[in-house]
Amino acid sequence: MKLILPAEIAIEIEPHLPEDTVLVPVDSDGNLDGDATDAEVYYSWFYLKPTTLHRVLDAAPSLRWHHAPNAGVNHILTPKYLERDLILTNGAGVHAIPIAEFVITYILAYAKHLPKLYHLQAEHNWQRGLPIQELLDKTLLIIGAGGIGQEIAIRAKAFGMRIFGSSRHPKPLPNFDKLVGINEWKELLPEANFIVIATPLTQETKGIIDLETLRLFRPDAYLINIARGAIVDESALTKALQEGWIAGAALDTVFTEPLPPESPLWSLPNVFITPHCSGNSPRVKERSLALFLDNLNRYLQGQPLRNVVDKTAGY
Questions:
Q1: pLDDT band at residue 239, thresholds of 50, 70 and 90?
Q2: CATH of span 2-93+282-301
Q3: Where is the D-isomer specific 2-hydroxyacid dehydrogenase catalytic domain (predicted)?
Q4: Which end of the chain is more exposed for a tag (fewer CB within 10 A), N or C?
């Protein structure tokens, strides 16, 4: 069987493949080192460009299964891609732990005034009396109670937080005090101290955090986005932050990445911006390779694959 693999990891993954496997490495621009016309499997890598994806599709007419390491696949589901009858699996779960840890970091940084304390240290200023909060009994709303949302809930519950969540198919989950459907989470906003966006970007979720929704937030609410920037109406969020409708926001993702230098978000004192790094960890690569190899074994054995994407739903 022939596999198309990212050039970055082809050598690393080759010893773990069946002996009769033929590899066709592909670089980040879509240049293939070999004939891919009879390749059945494509394992893409992070930061996949549409042009690279389309070059691979053109070169591999026999492709049957595509595995992407990302949890979000909105950048993959192009019209050209959807013309092909491919099985698509994703990397849901491989980033969940580092992202969940980062969410707790954002929450603690806000509650404990860490930016201010770092600033005071730099000034050699022993200032006391900051309105430092504790997390006990604070309410966290997680929009998207999937794998990442559940890992966030595990860690937040250890701080004694009350945890609400939303899901397409709500059912009781450990660590969640309340779960509602995807169209019901707005009713919970008046109770939420912290709101985390952990849902995939789809046609249904694009721009759901808009002016009308932000008006429902508590004045002391803190928004955290570790999903996709397009889920938030950025101009509406900027207005809400500037006018004090909400207390602040931590943004690991924005509509245009990198965030343009002229964006007002850079200089707002109540915004914490990180460069889409919350999922970073040396162990992500390890988990990603393990997931692909497990799925490859399932594919060869004719067994159901893990993390099959519903291309209609977008995740």
A1: very high
A2: 3.40.50.720
A3: 54-309
A4: N
How far is 280 from 257, CA to CA, in rounded Å? 16
Query: What mean pLDDT comes out for the span 295-299?
Result: 98
Q: By the 8 A CB rule, do 166 and 194 touch?
A: no
Does the pLDDT of residue 183 top 90, yes or no? no
Euclidean distance between CA atoms 130 and 112, whole angstroms: 9
State both tokens at 11: 């050598």
Cα 199 to chain centroid, rounded: 8
Q: What is the pLDDT of residues 49-107, one digit of tens each?
A: 999 999 999 999 999 999 999 999 999 999 999 999 999 999 999 999 999 999 999 99
Domain ranges of the chain: 2-93+282-301, 95-273
| Predicted local distance difference test score (pLDDT) of residue 219 | 98
Instruction: Supply the residues annotated as catalytic.
Output: 228, 257, 276
pLDDT of 169-181, one tens digit each? 999 999 999 999 9
- Of 1.10.580.10, 3.40.50.720, 3.40.309.10, 3.30.390.10, which CATH number belongs to 95-273? 3.40.50.720
Q: Is the dihedral of CA 288, 159, 138, 172 positive or negative?
A: positive
